[in-house]
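re: that chain from earlier
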Amino acid sequence: MAQKVMKKASPRGLLKQPLRHRFFALRHGESKANVAKIIISDPKVGTKKYGLTKAGRAAVKRTGSRFIKSASSRVVIVSSDFSRARETAQVFAKTLRKAGLRCPVQLSTALRERRFGSLEGGSDSRYNEVWSKDRRNAAARPFGAESAKAVQIRTAKLVSRLDHDLPDGADVVLVSHGDALQILQTAFQGISAASHRSLSHLDRAELRALNPEV
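^ sequence. v structure.
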């Protein structure tokens, strides 16, 4: 039997390195959708419902407290407009402001959850069915889901715009969702979006430096 060839879309040109700013990925804290173990990726639902749990808020606060020690004097927070991400950004910003840091928050649809098509509202155990297709073809759209490649492009374009527009010296914290952030990380590393599940898993409320060399 012939071996299947993985189709990898080249990410070259998506991000021009080196970047002017330090970028960080912050995955939202535990949400009510996580507890219910369901997939919520439709903006009509996710922007209005399924915000953070009490435990999720506490975890984000702890993450913010740890970040204070290494943050620059100006932090810009850019968040998905989904409830779970938006609330994460608010808690994170409040924690930093208490320490005297300037940290404006803005929302961006470019950081929204990846759309999972007909899996919407179903069990989150089915994510693996999408990821297995991603590994073979970054442009695949199983169940009508948004392709990994499309997510890579929209998130990387946002990073490029922010890096160009923001003043020097600002740290940029991108508050988003597991798939969106790990796929964005592939753009930073210059690898195919098909490889996003090969990266270290990004836990809820975890903050990760995307370009630590800056």
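The longest helix spans residues 148-165.
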